[in-house]
Amino acid sequence: MAKKHQSLAQNKNVGHLIALCFYIAVGYFLYIAASNMNYIWKWNSIPDYFVYTETKTVEAPANGKLIVQDGIYYLENSDEKVKLNLDASYKFSYVLGEDVYEGDYIATKSQKKTGPILNGLWVTLKISFFAAILTFILGTIVAFMKLSSYQFLKDIATVYITIVRGTPLLVQIFLFYFIVANIFELDRFVAGVLALGIFFGAYMAEILRGAIQSIDKGQLEAANSLGITKFQAMRYIILPQAFKRALPTLVGEMIALIKDSSLVSVISITDLTKVGKEIVANTFSPFETWIVIALVYLSITSVLSYVGHKLEKRMAEKGGMS
């Protein structure tokens, strides 16, 4: 059989190169467009928003000579000996025994501190983590309610899913913050977690319900015929298979949750997005700031996507995704 001819553009490596050139061209076009707006790029200021150096200075509280006794620093004069809250980690501007006057800077100490972007990243990860736990718990419970033989449980689950999926997440965040949080005196962080968890719990419930129903009913019947209770069969036979089948969609929902967590910035939770707004307000550098914030979000979701892909691949190799 004759080998099918492959054009140059269909070559995998050439395709990668063309795609790379395309995105370089897009980036260059945006850079030129910004330059034509007389925009001044300030990339050098961005690193300080990740990690910065904090310098602490200590002023002399009184006149005197700088002395040290048993590792403790003092200012000694004819009237008193004033203890200083200093240690060897400080860099001194005066040598021991030298006269110091009140108000002089006698020592400084520099240390690295995490900047607003890293602090905002931590808040984003924390709120996404707790919201994800709530999503899985609520989604699993509601999925079983939808599959229940009790009609009132089905109705409760159906109404919940319909309302949540039919209204915007942003509106739900406002409802939780201004109504639920005020009634129960909840912290804004808790309100954000609840809003995200309840919103994505509805989608998770439908995903799990579909995955459970995709498992052959004959397996449950076979388990019952062997004396295995319905609860045991669901726990040890049906649910593990359902979670494996739903894994790609579940990972996608978790990625969406992380991205949509940016909406909690509207209730003054200092996550990545709110940090971005504050940096723009302080530096008037919207392009650099939002590009960096977007890259941070992309790094989080890329890691989660990679982990999900590896899990899918491992399960597929073991025959667990079928």
TrEMBL record:
Q: Which CDD domains match?
A: TM_PBP2
Pfam families in the cross-refs: BPD_transp_1
- Specify the domain of life of the species encoding this protein: Bacteria
Do you know which Gene3D superfamilies this protein is assigned to?
Answer: MetI-like
Q: Which GO terms describe its cellular component?
A: ATP-binding cassette (ABC) transporter complex
Alphabetically sorted, this entry's keywords are:
Amino-acid transport, Cell membrane, Membrane, Transmembrane, Transmembrane helix, Transport
| UniProt subcellular location | Cell inner membrane; Cell membrane
Mainly localized where?
membrane
The way it spans or sits in the membrane comes to: Multi-pass membrane protein
Which PROSITE patterns does its entry note? ABC_TM1
Q: Which SUPFAM superfamilies match?
A: MetI-like
InterPro entries named in the record: AA_ABC_transptr_permease_3TM (IPR010065), ArtM/GltK/GlnP/TcyL/YhdX-like (IPR043429), MetI-like (IPR000515), MetI-like_sf (IPR035906)
Q: Where is the ABC transmembrane type-1 domain?
A: 121-308
* BP term (GO), one: amino acid transport
So where does this one cross the membrane? 14-34, 127-145, 157-183, 189-208, 289-308
> One GO molecular function term?
transmembrane transporter activity
Please state which protein family the record places this protein in: Belongs to the binding-protein-dependent transport system permease family. HisMQ subfamily.
Physiological role: Part of the binding-protein-dependent transport system for glutamine; probably responsible for the translocation of the substrate across the membrane.
Q: Which PANTHER family match?
A: GLUTAMINE TRANSPORT SYSTEM PERMEASE PROTEIN GLNP, MEMBRANE COMPONENT OF AMINO ACID ABC TRANSPORTER
Q: Could you identify this protein by its name? A: Putative glutamine transport system permease protein GlnP
